């Protein structure tokens, strides 16, 4: 070529080099080929335009499917898209192998890309072609299997340290790195989140490194693009300032890839190799895919750890600390959150010191829902209950005010944010064991008596808090006898595990009856009966998933049947006692009294005597409600030790404030009343009426029948 002659056209030069030009517009779905490119793909040597389906038919289907991945990698790294592709004839035979090199451009508005590049026939094997070459099918299958395993393992990792352990154990097909490091950012500095293949302390020079430093990881964080260094010479040339730090590890190749989540670069991942790696497009594709999965796993793990920290903080701030020791009484509590979400919910308990000498209140409840909103409402409601109780209001007034408070908090104009809460409020007088209970849609308390007998104690109640701001909450008065333990709990303790209220209570009853230790051990046993062994107490979350939150309170009045006293004596007390009050306006509670008496006599030897006791009790209670204007106090007691000779005695007494003594009547055959005392005389072993200063007590006693060895009485 003489000086000053014009240069040949680019197309002529490329044709002389057996190199064709092509253009692929994915938005239009068309591929334009010049004459040489058309010849290379097996078409007549003339410029032509094909549809995407037409050009795809000229390539091996496996190779065509690789094109999109190669292009996406090139777009992410800002490099050329390079791939080897096999050209097929009409019979499906490979006629030649071509190499495509193209520059992709991306259209953000449409999400499509365009390729402009070259095609050139390949007559020699790929440089360094080994088992991990991009054109070998076995390598591709190994890569796909590796990525599936890696994705599954990283998806199951729950903490940052676990993610790093999984990343360190990844065995990449053909070019596994022997050194890994994950870099994060804090402000304008890099931090080392974790590393593998290095000795402890090796990371020190790389911690707190400025983002503007002459270091590959810093550049990756700044630009969001990967850096590949195939040799020590290339590393030293590109990053002379940081090369002395890297040289001491004796590595031959390095890959630094961005950890990107939702378009934001959160750090960098380094994979270092003791052997030279050329970083072919397929190798870069594998590393890029692993980096993306690693970034997602680290993001999930970081979010989970943040949630756990938030959960712990919420629990510590919302759950109360039980007050000082109460003379003559012991209190234990547990709270176990659900496993879903932030592991916080609407269950709570509290112990409140009341005005007056020694009195205190126990409250337990459950706000509807298992989300942060429920937890927030729970905290506000607990504070409101504490405030109303501290003002000296009675239990019914405390719940009425709390219901109005919650209704005002949750009743929006459209009614979509309405929430309710169940609650049980107990005012305790430690000196006498008197319990005054108000209940708002919550499960009734259970009493473990001194001899181990467990009774559910029906109490009067109203609607859950927040439903009706004008709802009333009647008060029930009970007495916790020495040696007895009261259980208050939310429905999560009862119903978890597919149980309903009845079967759930049977499960808890067995635990309460068999337990002879202190309250702390009993609380652990109740939780373990639902979820298995755990060392976590009131503020410690369990890690397994469960159906509902659990909150429970145990209150024990000192006596022979309570905790340590049993362990010292080894003998159960021989007296069990239960009491309840039935108001004039509550005749329906006579049925509850009958059920209470049957539970009290659950191990009585004579079924006929139990029926007689229930009948007589109903008669005496009905007599008070019909013939007087006062409420009825029922006290039932079983004394003595059970054996085959009988020996126990039951006493049932009903007290009212009327001075009118009962007298025997002589009803006719058709009379509807007047037979109460007749029945008492016929069925009771002993009975009587005891006048009091104000009112009277009518009582009866039954002696347990003896049971012979052959089972006959």
UniProtKB/TrEMBL annotation:
Keywords: Hydrolase. It comes from the Bacteria. Residues 145-308 form the GAF domain. It holds the Pfam family GAF_2. Coiled coil: none annotated. InterPro entries: Bact_Sigma-Reg, GAF, GAF-like_dom_sf, HATPase_C_sf, HATPase_dom, PAS-like_dom_sf, PPM-type-like_dom_sf, PPM-type_phosphatase-like_dom. Residues 326-557 form the PPM-type phosphatase domain. This is SpoIIE family protein phosphatase. It comes from Streptomyces macrolidinus.
């Amino acid at each position: 070529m003489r000086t000053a002659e014009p240069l040949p056209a680019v197309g002529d030069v490329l044709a002389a080099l057996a190199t064709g030009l092509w253009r692929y517009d994915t938005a239009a779905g068309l591929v334009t080929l010049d004459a040489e490119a058309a010849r290379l793909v097996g078409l007549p040597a003339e410029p032509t335009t094909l549809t995407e389906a037409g050009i795809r038919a000229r390539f091996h289907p496996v190779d065509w499917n690789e094109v999109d991945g190669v292009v996406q990698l090139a777009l992410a790294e800002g490099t050329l898209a390079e791939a080897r592709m096999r050209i097929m004839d009409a019979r499906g035979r490979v006629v030649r192998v071509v190499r495509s090199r193209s520059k992709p451009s991306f259209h953000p508005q449409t999400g499509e890309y365009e390729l402009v590049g070259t095609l050139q026939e390949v007559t020699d094997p790929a440089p360094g072609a080994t088992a991990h070459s991009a054109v070998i099918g076995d390598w591709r299958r190994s890569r796909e299997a590796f990525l599936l395993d890696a994705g599954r393992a990283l998806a199951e990792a729950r903490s940052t340290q676990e993610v790093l352990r999984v990343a360190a154990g990844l065995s990449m097909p053909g070019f596994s790195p022997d050194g890994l490091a994950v870099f994060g950012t804090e402000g304008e500095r890099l931090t080392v989140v974790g590393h593998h293949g290095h000795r402890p302390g090796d990371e020190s020079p790389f911690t707190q490194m400025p983002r503007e430093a002459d270091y590959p990881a810093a550049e990756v964080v700044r630009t969001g693009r990967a850096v590949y260094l195939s040799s020590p010479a290339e590393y030293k040339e590109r990053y002379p300032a940081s090369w002395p730090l890297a040289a001491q590890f004796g590595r031959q190749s390095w890959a630094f890839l961005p950890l990107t989540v939702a378009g934001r670069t959160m750090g960098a991942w380094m994979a270092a190799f003791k052997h030279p790696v050329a970083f072919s497009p397929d190798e870069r594709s594998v590393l890029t895919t692993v980096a993306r999965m690693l970034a997602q796993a680290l993001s999930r793990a970081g979010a989970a750890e943040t949630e756990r920290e938030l959960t712990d903080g919420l629990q510590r701030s919302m759950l109360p600390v039980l007050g000082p020791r109460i003379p003559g009484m012991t209190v234990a509590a547990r709270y176990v959150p659900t496993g879903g979400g932030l592991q916080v919910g609407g269950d709570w308990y509290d112990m409140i010191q009341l005005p007056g000498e020694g009195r205190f209140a126990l409250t337990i409840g459950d706000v509807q829902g298992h989300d942060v909103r429920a937890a927030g409402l729970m905290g506000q409601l607990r504070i409101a209950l504490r405030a109303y109780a501290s003002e000296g209001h009675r239990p019914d007034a405390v719940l009425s005010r709390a219901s109005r408070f919650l209704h005002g908090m949750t009743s929006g104009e459209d009614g979509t944010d309405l929430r309710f809460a169940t609650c049980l409020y107990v005012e305790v007088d430690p000196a006498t064991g008197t319990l005054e209970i108000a209940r708002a849609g919550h499960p009734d308390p259970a009493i473990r008596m001194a001899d181990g007998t467990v009774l559910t104690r029906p109490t009067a109640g109203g609607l859950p808090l927040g439903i009706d701001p004008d709802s009333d909450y009647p008060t029930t008065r009970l007495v916790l006898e020495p040696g007895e333990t009261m259980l208050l709990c939310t429905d999560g303790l009862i119903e978890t595990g597919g149980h309903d209220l009845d079967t759930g209570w049977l499960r808890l009853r067995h635990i309460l009856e068999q337990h002879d230790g202190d309250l702390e051990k009993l609380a652990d046993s109740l939780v373990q009966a639902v979820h298995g062994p755990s060392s976590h107490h009131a503020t410690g979350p369990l890690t397994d998933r469960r159906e509902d939150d659990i909150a429970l309170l145990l209150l024990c009045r000192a006596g022979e049947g309570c905790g340590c006293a049993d362990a010292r004596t080894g003998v159960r007390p021989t007296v069990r006692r239960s009491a309840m009050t039935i108001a004039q306006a509550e005749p329906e509670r006579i049925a509850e009294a009958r059920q209470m008496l049957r539970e009290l006599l659950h191990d009585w030897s004579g079924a006929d005597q139990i029926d007689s006791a229930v009948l007589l009790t109903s008669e005496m209670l009905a007599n008070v409600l019909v013939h007087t204007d006062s409420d009825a106090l029922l006290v039932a007691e079983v004394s003595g030790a059970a054996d085959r000779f009988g020996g126990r005695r039951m006493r049932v007494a009903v007290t009212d404030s009327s001075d009118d003594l009962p007298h025997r009547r002589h009803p006719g055959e058709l009379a509807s009343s007047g037979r109460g005392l007749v029945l008492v005389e016929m069925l009771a072993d002993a009975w009587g009426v005891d006048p009091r200063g104000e009112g009277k007590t009518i009582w009866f006693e039954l002696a347990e029948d003896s049971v012979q060895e052959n089972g006959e009485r």
